[in-house]
Amino acid sequence: MRVGVIQGNGIGPEIVGATIQVLEATKIDFEWVDVEIGDEAIEQYGHPLPPHSVDLLRELKYAFKGPFVVEKMKGRLLCTQPDGTQMIYPSLNNAIRRELSLFVCPRPIKGVKNISGAYEDFDVVIMREITEDVYAAIEHSIGDVAAECVKLTTREAAIRVAQYSFEYARRHGRKKVTCVHKANAISITDGLFLACFREVAARFPDIESDDVMVDAAAYYLVTDHRRFDVITTSNQYGDILSDLCAGLVGSLGLAPGGNIGFDVSVFEASHGAAPDIAGQGIANPTAMILSGAFMLRHMGFDREAGVVEHAVWDVLEERQALTPDLGGSATTAEYTQAVVAKVEQRI
């Protein structure tokens, strides 16, 4: 199995290396293909996302990536298209998603016994639409007195993410899909998102559906998380709520994710690059490892994916090799070796 590897920066190389060790312990015959994006691409090609790297990802179909540092107010990226036109993206992460036509970011977040306290039974999948909303970077300055950003919602994207959400729910035995929006205040754009969701929901009478405004959803995730199963939402709301959910179960280091398209999928942790702890050997690779398991499941390796997931949960529940963000003192390497040992035992 040829799989692309995007190292990222900050703690990216550390948690990517940990994930490779764990996935190799499943005995699947992987060929890891380094895809140059970010700093290494700038050094060699003068651009963080060269066209041949995008082409390579399309060829490989599957990849996983470490996080990238995005500087505040400096993230905009210009990419030249095959026809000579140019696209402006708000960040490198956004550029990767949109250049590859990735349209939904599922973030399955689960509580962990002995780690998550009152949220041990937390089990919510956030389906984040990742092609538009305010993250489409349609924005401009008005002199030095104001700035304006367009919130883009299209019928195509709203239908697509809703369809994927209900199909996912049916495929994985989920009982309910909730649309999170703010259609009372942003009645046209979020109103369209909600209307498209309801249209798709009517095609899935076997799956319960409802909708909740985003501020109320944040409240209910904290006070009554059992009311949610799968959440379908727009780009910005999904980004914010998935971090909230990670915090509830104990750490941003516990939140995996993937970027799914029709032909290509790139899997990544939900958290950022944490440059403040890079190189110290204390990063928690759990989210990246679980993203690797998510990739295995997407590739059809259900048994091996389950082995990796249960190995992670066993190590976390036993609390003998926890990284500092979870109250332990284990290094990234020590935690990784504990997970590898569990995988080898189960395999």
Question: For the record, what CATH class of the largest domain applies?
Answer: Alpha Beta
Radius of gyration in whole Å, from Cα?
20 Å
Give the full name of the CATH homologous superfamily of the largest domain: Isopropylmalate Dehydrogenase
How many beta-strand runs?
A: 14
Order of helices and strands: EHEHHEEEHEEEEHEHEHEHEEHHH
Q: What structural category characterises the helix and strand content?
A: alpha/beta
Straight-line N-to-C gap = 18 Å
The assigned CATH architecture of the largest domain is 3-Layer(aba) Sandwich
Dominant shape: globular
Report helical residue fraction: 40-55%
Low-confidence stretches at least 5 residues in length (pLDDT < 50)?
none
Question: Could you please say which CATH topology of the largest domain applies here?
Answer: Isopropylmalate Dehydrogenase
Query: Number of helical runs?
Result: 11
Arithmetic mean of pLDDT: 95
In total, the number of domains comes to 2
Strand order in the largest sheet? 2-1-3-14-13-6-7-12-10-11
The share of residues in extended strands comes to 15-25%
**What about the largest sheet?**
10 strands, mixed
